[in-house]
Amino acid sequence: MKEKSLFQLKRFWVSAFLILLVAFLSAIYIFCTSNLVYVSGYKGVNGFLEAYKVPLGILALLFPVIALVAASHRSEQAKKQIIISESQNNFANYYKHVEEFGKLIEKSKVKYSIKEQRVSFLYTRLFPSNTSMNFEFISHGTNGGISFLETIDVIISSAVDSMSQISSNDEVEVIGEKLKFFYSSVASVSMFVDFKIDNNSLNYAFISADPFMEVVKVAYKDDDPFYHFKKVVSFVNDLRFFCHLEDKVYIVECDSRIAGQARIYLESKLW
């Protein structure tokens, strides 16, 4: 929409008209109710100025009023320009942000041997409110709710806590239940962040991501049953860095007996 000039503004003409009208009516009133006579020379001029002091004073208001209208008009134009500039910046920043996120995912595919990953799926989960008109760098939730990464942190923390509660003196059944919860949580995080390792040199267990009942392929090595956990946590921290959030450090500490039970559990989940 084309911007209106000052002289195209309705309030400009209304303000000018009202001042001129009041000045004119007051001049007519003075002329009709006063016994004015023509006097030549400076006395006549002084007399005229004295007689019509009020309408001339009203007429003089025309200039400051028009100046105020002009100032208001310039302010509105400046505000619109700021809005347009912000909109253009948001538009450019949004698409640049999506582009950079796509580059991060492409690097992650190589770094973690991920076969494929849905960029728009992940971006929408991290930045649900972002559009070309509304843009934020920091990950956020929908309508001020808990963010996607906060949900992921809760799941990972619960998984790590379950492992920290295992003692090498626990019964095999107890250790098994804790491991089931741990790997189910790892599978859930992997499902949420679309993390699917595809490397022929690794072993794979098929773990149910409770309570979603979706089976997720969890990678492990013969000497490292927590390989997938470490990689998915590293990927989540990559996402956190992109979202301008601090890294979270999660460490699973266990002795050889518990690590052995973890390998046995994973081997029992072969397809």
Order of strands, main sheet, comes to 1-2
Helical stretch count?
9
**What overall geometry do the principal axes of the alpha carbons give?**
rod-shaped
Radius of gyration: 38 Å
Biggest sheet character: 2 strands, antiparallel
Order of helices and strands: HHHHHHHEEHH
**Spatial separation of the terminal alpha carbons:** 63 Å
**Uncertain spans:** none
- What is the number of strand segments? 2
Classification by helices and strands: mainly alpha
β-strand percent reads: 5-15%
Helix content: 55-70%
Mean pLDDT: 85
Number of domains: 2
How would you explain this protein's 3D organization?
The protein is mainly α and 271 residues long. It is built from 9 helices and 2 strands; from the N terminus they run H-H-H-H-H-H-H-E-E-H-H. The protein folds into 2 domains: 6-85, no CATH class; 89-271, no CATH class. The protein has a two-stranded antiparallel sheet. Strand 1 (203-209) and strand 2 form a beta hairpin. The protein starts with 9 loop residues before the first helix and ends with a helix.
Per-chain topology:
Elements (H helix, E strand, L loop, with lengths): L9 H24 L7 H11 L1 H8 L1 H50 L7 H8 L21 H17 L7 H21 L10 E7 L4 E7 L6 H16 L13 H12 L4
Antiparallel strand pairs: 1-2
Helix pairs in contact: 1-3, 1-4, 6-7, 7-9
